[in-house]
Amino acid sequence: MALLRQSQQLGAESSQAVVKGVSEGWNPKRPGTVREADKKFLTSLASTISPDNRERYARLMQTWGLAAAEQADPNVQVIRLKVVREALQFDKKEFSVKAGKPVEVVLENPDAMQHNFVLGKQGTMDKIGQAADKMITQPDAAAKITTCRKFRKCWRQPNS
């Protein structure tokens, strides 16, 4: 709680990093006890949470018994994709979705290594692979990567 309170004295980016660290670092199997005075603070903090941290923060609040689980949209198919620690791979090799239906891809990366996720049309894997191979050799490759923030309506990435 002290870290979350202190984070409000920092800049926006640093504050969000603290929220991310507390949310990801808390063991969800260990329910927290929150004093009455802290409940209002945590509720007010929710309005300042960045889109990247919302799901993390909601899980933390739920673990602490302060919020109900998000109500899932029954029309959205949710695909959860998690990074395999210390291996450059995901826990799923493939997934299928219904054409024309909304899809939400939730990426979880508890690893220190950055991972890429590309969603492409069927039959374009070779073209995407060649572009990735070409880009990785460029010194400014990291600056060219488009983050999920530009695709917020299509999918979200809870863990960077």
Query: Distance between the terminal alpha carbons, to the nearest Å?
Result: 23 Å
Count of DSSP strands: 2
Radius of gyration over C-alpha positions, nearest whole angstrom? 18 Å
| Low-confidence parts | 147-160
SSE ordering = HHHHEEHH
Helix percent band: 25-40%
The coarse silhouette is globular
Report the sheet-strand fraction.
5-15%
Strand order of the largest sheet: 1-2
- Give the helix/strand class: mainly alpha
Count, helices: 6
Query: What is the number of domains?
Result: 2
Please describe the biggest sheet, giving its number of strands, its sense, and whether it closes into a barrel: 2 strands, parallel
Arithmetic mean pLDDT: 77
Describe this protein's structure.
The chain has 160 residues and is mainly alpha-helical. It has two domains: 2-63; 77-151, no CATH class. Helices cover 35% and strands 8% of the residues. It is built from six helices and two strands. Helix 2 crosses helix 4 (54-63). The relative contact order is 0.12.
